[in-house]
TrEMBL record, chain A:
Organism of derivation: Ceratotherium simum simum
Coiled coil: none
Domain of life of the source: Eukaryota
UniProt xrefs under SMART domains: LIF_OSM (SM00080)
Protein name: Leukemia inhibitory factor
Automatic annotation (TrEMBL), chain B:
Chain positions covered by the region annotation Disordered: 947-973
One Pfam short name: LIF-R_Ig-like
Signal peptide coordinates: 1-25
UniProt-recorded name of the protein: Oncostatin-M-specific receptor subunit beta isoform X2
Coiled-coil regions listed in the entry: none
Amino acid sequence: MKVLAAGVVPLLLVLHWKHGAGSPLPITPDNATCATRHPCQSNVMDQIRNQLVQLNSSANALFVLYYTAQGEPFPSNLDKLCRPDVTDFPPFHANGTEKARLVELYRIVAYLGASLGNITRDQKVLNPNARSLHCKLNSTSDTMRGLLSNVLCHLCSKYHVANVDVAYGPDTSNKDAFQKKKLGCQLLGKYKQVIKVVAQAF
Amino acid sequence: MAVFAVFQTTFLLALLSWRTYQSEALSEPLPLTPESLKVSINSTQQCLHLQWSVHSLAYHQELKMVFQIEISRFNTSNVIWVENYSTTVKWKQVLHWNWESELPLECATHFVRIRSMVDNARIPEPRSWSSWSSWEEVDERNSLGHGALFVFPKDKLVEEGSSVTICSISRSYQNNVSCLLEGVQMRGEQLDPNVSAFHLNNVPFIRETGTNIFCTTGRGDGTGTVLFVSKVLEEPRDFSCETPDFKTLHCTWDPGSDTGLPKRQPSQSYTLFESFSGKKILCEHKNWCNWQVAQDSQEMYNFTLTTENYLRKRGVNILFNLTHRVRPMTPFNVVFKNISDTNATMTWQVHSIGNYSTLFCQIELHGEGKVIQHNVSIKVNGNYLLSELEPDTQYMAQVRCGDANHFWKWSEWIGKNFSTLEAAPSEAPDVWRNVKSEPGYQTVTLFWKPLSKSHANEKILFYNVVIENLDEPSKLQLHSIPAPANGTKLTLDQCSYQIHVTANNSVGTSPASVIVVSGDTGNKVEEERVNVTEDGFSMSWKPQPGDVTGYVVEWCDHPRDLPCDLQWEKLGPNTTSTVISSDAFIPGVRYNFRIYGISTKRIAYLLEQKTGYSQELAPSDNPQVVMSNLTSHSFTLSWKDYSTESQPGFIRGYHVYLKSKEGECHPGFEKAILPDDSVSCKYKIYNPEQKTFVVENLQPESFYEFFVTPYTSVGEGPLDAFTKVTTPDEHSHLLIRIILPTVFCVLLIMIICYLNSQWMKEKCYPDIPDPYKSSVLSLIKSKENPRLTIMSVKDCIPDAIEVINKPEGSKIQFLGSRNSLTDTEITQPAYLYLLPTEKNSSGPGPCICFENFTYNQAASNSGCCGHVPVPPEAPSQLGLLTSPENLLKVLENNYMNSLGEIPAGETTLNYVSQLVLPLSRDKDSLQTDPPVPALCSEYKMQMAIPLGLASPPPNEKSSVSSVTLLDQGEPHH
């Protein structure tokens, strides 16, 4: 039995952490225990709204900064290179319940957080001197992490949801430079589009 | 059976041995076909990698062979490359060969085959190729995955200026792929229905982060690739090595462009290799490297500097003798000793470069804006005496050294500042004066120039001015003027004075500058014009007979200002010309120069005066012209207030412009076109002192315009507005000559008349004598009738009313009249005789005359009744008379009053007024001839008429008859 546990658990862990290969996992059952390290702030929902507003207000600037830093042909071919066609992007339903919206928000933020990490990593290689872009990407990632924490805290404290199954975008590490630039541009275009809807929904 | 087996084995071994022998000893060609050919793709380097082996080789056999490799693209018949590869093949050796494709290998299927031939000199020609291996196919397109369009190569690293082929693979046959490089369309070539190639020649370096190439099919998304273009690796320039101490070699070079690309290619590396010692080091810096000199007294060094990056490798070589590459280290411990006002000793030390080496050092002295170099050879410690320095001056001295035996390069400079000591001023100040003589005294203004730093030797604190009266040598005055004053003003009497001026600093006093002023006002000389050259004002003067110690030229830099900034230049006794230049000289300003001679007694006397302009300009303004003496044919212009001295150039004359309607120019004038393109007549006045001009030959009653402007050698003054003038009528002056005296005479007569009005009145209009005071009265009174009565004007009864019909047909009608006045003759005034005529009056009586409102002169002249001018009260009376009743009433009242005023006993006398009554006529004549009315303005002597001649006194009845007459409405004349 020990041997079985010793062999299966790491295997499961490896499968779970495989980048971009994970399929959405079910929400924690209602009867599962949910514990947070610290109690949520009483105004956590306000903080979530503020963070969404902040992200929404800076999304377009980040998008512009990104495609400008890539050089031609990106600024002049946004429709072909930066079209927000991200097929596996988590859905969001603005008319759902608050819990459903928060769960969908969690998935979106988790997806975006991972994608922003990839973009930041790629841009440090492709555009090492684009300091303002790096700064903006890092700032957005930081806000995204805070938002993810707040959403999770709120889900846990109010709706007792301790774990939400998430999916991630494709790994770009093995892509060529042009594909990295293009995927990043598409993702940020999608992000700009989605964050506006999400911010309005809350 | 066993025997057979043994025999068979033996036979086979023998056969094998024989074959081997044949192969080696007889050198027969062997069919060594390449086998196990494998082809793979290295996408990063765009290489086809081949590996194969030759199985037929014997054990430990080595054979030189030639392999022919054929490469086809898309299909086997499309051979794109054939190459022979020679190598020595060993037993069981796996052979490798690479081929770099220009076209990215992902874009096309490639086929490879190989054959071989033994390349052995012992084998006689002709040698034969082995059979071809089978075609090996490599196709990467099957592993591209999903996607509509692919572009290769991916992330290729190339050098700037190289050629690259980009290819695209489209999944659709219909798509026409186009690719852009930084927005510029690339020219493509269709290699296959799905494959296009784009050739890029001379790839530019655009940015370190790569050049984007974007391809699209025109539908849907596009894709692309990034080309990483690096700078071309350059050969290191100026590679050299030198030693400061025979212990280390310091090698430097110019690396050129950095070929590094962030995260793609590091900067090029540099390796130093010395061939004699065989040592090699990797340099940490891109432009220098240190090499430790071996202790084995190696003199010759052969260095190879190699640089390389991912794409290229370059090298450069130098060979030298170490002793010829010595560059000493920077000297140290520089010290200045024994500093005086003019000297200083500089000492320094150098690092040793050998026991017997000699150094050659160079010293540079910077000070007073100059650089002086000195050279000296030293062993270890150096020292040098810096002499002929200026007192109280800061200097900077620096030193550097080189190897005196085999000079290679100087060391770095090392320098230090020092200052020489102070000293008394070494020269007398340059002093000049300006003397103004006034009655009884003279004002002497002294000027001096500050001493140059080389002469002041320290900061000047004050100037001493000692005044010595030459007439009374015992009288000395001392004035101490604090610096930085550059002059002082002295008031002296008319005696001669010798003035000593010295400059003083903290150390001492300068030599004295001496000038002498005398009470003599000096002579006056003619002013001349000075020549101007590019260098300045060039002037010369006549050499003075006798002893002259020198000359002084004096002028003002700013002659228009006060003070005018007096300048002077002292010249030697043999100099009779100079050129004066100053940065202060500006065009258009007149500068005056005075040339003085200095006598042996140091008295300055004026020799010449000169004036001139550094550059003449056209006049900046025009004179104020006054016009006078305007006649019908001429007028005079004058501008006497115009100063020719203060102009921006020498005034050479004036231009008088005259415009007339006719446009014709008078004699002496010439046609000229003005700056505003208008045409005018111009008269030139060549004398600048002629400031009047008479414009003649003008037409009477004509309009002229004139304008006067001065001119210099450069041009004339600005074009101002013309002054307009119109000549008067030709006879106007005659009229004036007549009218004025006439008016004067009339006025004189009037004045005389006024003054003698009493006399005139007596002569022309004597007072009407008062009848009561008449002497006749007294005469009559005494003889006939003591009760004489004087006729009153009121007693005069007009005898007719003149009625003049208005032309417009006035409708005024009199009371009781049957016919309107419009029916009557308009031109004839209507008179109503109020006195009885032949028909209805009993006798002559006083006439009564009424005046009509519309009385006019014509009527009065034509009427028989003399008119009495309307008295001041006439309007009111006339106003009342407009009504017939009023009229009758007035008449009645007047008449009754006149009767009433006559006393009862006096009715025997009647008075006729305003009528000329011929005294010679009797009563009848009066009746038949109506009395001719005299002019009403005429008064006749009134007199009493005897009762018998007088008309019967008017009574009430006659008054009634008059009224009745009016009632009848009969017109009367």
